[in-house]
Amino acid sequence: MTYMIHDKGLSTMIDWKNRDIFGKEIPAKLRGQIYRLRKWQSRIRVSDATERNLTFALSELDRMASNLDLQKNLRECSAKIYRDAVDKHLIRGRSIEGVAAASLYAACRLYKVPRTLNEIAEIARVDKKEIGRSFRFISNELCLNLNPTNPIDFLPRFISELNLTQECHKISKKIIKLAEQRGLTSGRGPTGVCAAAIYAATILCKERRTQRKIAKISQVTEVTVRNRFFELIENLPLGISLKKNGKP
After folding, report:
1. Domain boundaries, the chain
2. DSSP conformation letters of 61-110
3. CATH topology for 49-141?
4. What is the pLDDT of residues 190-207, one digit of tens each?
5. Residue 8's pLDDT is what?
6. Which of 103, 202, 203, 104 is closest to 158 using CA atoms?
7. Is 19 helix (H, G, I), strand (E, B) or coil?
């Protein structure tokens, strides 16, 4: 059974190959009859508007998950969340695409797979605001109890995309943990804090990467990286001093 197919994969399927169960070719005189059976079977599987909408939503989920290269178990989880939303009539007044994207984002949060709303919005057919609204609504109504995203969750992916060493990863992680202990992450976007910690670590490890490059990878602005970085060096004993022009 799978949640990714509208009928959960429990219906019969007439294969499009013109071969029987033993692998032998179907005689030419029977092919017309088999073709008609296929058409009717396809129509019967999706019989009403609800099933058509569910089929469309699940295909959208699969498309977005494929674009983000997400695993099968996470796709199944997002489909289950969407089905639960349909069962509780939470789709009314909202776009199918918006709720589907929100379900995928919720599944990423549940599985602690670091994907931002920006990344979901980039491959969705709706904007970030609509996805955010739908996400907050369904997570409250379905009582998903999602924990806040931690900056450390994004660290391995950002380090890998910036081609930094394990040492830089280790120092970035220490900086984030120190920042959490001092309350510097409260009310701050996790990707911004992670980006600033990485920038500080690249200075300490002498593996310099520009703020622009780090901002691009972490999908935040250079201003955000710079502001979070200044907060870190002002409040943590990192041993990084600034020159007169404000640069490290």
Report:
1. 49-141, 151-235
2. HHHHHHHTT--HHHHHHHHHHHHHHHHTT--TTS-HHHHHHHHHHHHHHH
3. Cyclin A; domain 1 (1.10.472)
4. 999 999 999 999 999 999
5. 57
6. 202
7. strand
Query: Who's near 70: CB < 8 A, 6+ residues apart?
Result: 104, 108, 113, 115
- HSE toward the beta carbon, residue 165, CA cutoff 13 A: 11
Q: Establish whether domains 49-141 and 151-235 are of one fold.
A: yes
pTM of the model: 0.78
Alpha carbon distance 104, 61 (integer Å): 7
**How far apart are the C-alpha atoms of 242 and 248, rounded to whole Å?**
4
Q: Quick check: 209 and 164 in contact, CB under 8 A?
A: yes
Over the stretch 44-88, which tens digit does the pLDDT of each residue have? Answer: 555 556 777 888 889 999 999 999 999 999 999 999 999 999 999
Could you tell me which CATH number the domain at 151-235 has?
1.10.472.10
User: Which of 219, 120, 205 has the alpha carbon at shortest distance from 163?
Assistant: 205
pLDDT, averaged across the chain:
86
∠ CA 142-86-139, rounded to 5°? 25
Identify the segments of the chain with pLDDT beneath 70: 1-17, 19-23, 31, 34-35, 37-49, 243-247
Q: Check: CB of residue 179 under 8 Å from CB of residue 232.
A: yes
Return the residue matching tokens 């002498």: 206
How much is the pLDDT for 10?
Answer: 46
